[in-house]
Amino acid sequence: MSNIPAELKYIASHEWLRLEDDGTITVGITDHAQDLLGDVVFVELPDVGDIIAVDDEISVVESVKAASDVYAPISGEVVEINEALEDDPEIINSDPYGEGWFFRMKPDNIADYEALLTADEYENEL
């Protein structure tokens, strides 16, 4: 069984989101996703300042097994990227919900975040 933290929100394509105290949202891929991918060897991140719309392909994760697109879970603006992943993408495998985050965004509408899957709902999707 994958690790699915209860305090996060999820989308069916295996991205997780965490609302931060400053109103930004941190986005990454789930433990289930990194497990399916295997050893991550490369990550292409969006650029700070990118305006993204829900379901946009915003990132690519490459592993020894496959390449997978990461989709925008909600609309907004990218305000920070995890530059550590550029030199050390395997952090995604060892700590997908912590140091392995992809980017932070300012959401266009916080209600979009609230409408995403809970941990229980995501687990049922699996």
UniProtKB/TrEMBL annotation:
Q: Which residues carry this modification: N6-lipoyllysine?
A: 65
Q: How is this protein organized at the quaternary level?
A: The glycine cleavage system is composed of four proteins: P, T, L and H.
- Give the GO biological process terms: glycine decarboxylation via glycine cleavage system; protein lipoylation
**Could you identify this protein by its name?**
Glycine cleavage system H protein
Lineage of the species this protein comes from: Bacteria, Pseudomonadati, Pseudomonadota, Gammaproteobacteria, Moraxellales
Q: Which family does it belong to?
A: Belongs to the GcvH family.
Q: Which NCBIfam families match?
A: gcvH, PRK01202.1
The record's function comment reads:
The glycine cleavage system catalyzes the degradation of glycine. The H protein shuttles the methylamine group of glycine from the P protein to the T protein.
